[in-house]
Amino acid sequence: MLTRYRMYRGARPADDPLPSGIRLDTRKHTKHCLRPTSDAVRDYLAAPNDEAWEQFAAAYRATLAERLESDPTPFDDLAAKARTNDVHLGCSCPTAKNPDVRQCHTWLALAFMQERYPAIEVVFPGGG
Prior knowledge:
Elements: E1 2-6, E2 22-25, H1 38-46, H2 50-70, H3 73-84, E3 87-91, H4 105-116
Parallel strand pairs: 1-3, 2-3
């Protein structure tokens, strides 16, 4: 199963325990294949609105497609892990600047993986 979880700076709230399974940090500063680019995140968070989100989402989907075409191995490996384990994509969203988890790169990443790897179970936050 592939889903997402919220990462925190500092102590994790007691009412939001870490999920069990494989937790992967997919934020912009990592080397994960599903990370967004720093520029795209910066541009979106400078003025987070519907238009900025659409621009971010289009750019992010294009980035993932390019990465997959260039080197499918990390995507294939992630899908293989998700077939036999609970895999959680980590990000700090929701945040004050970006309070809607549906406007997080992890939501788009889940949709991307679901489309490209239909054999894996993908669970969106809140059942979305």
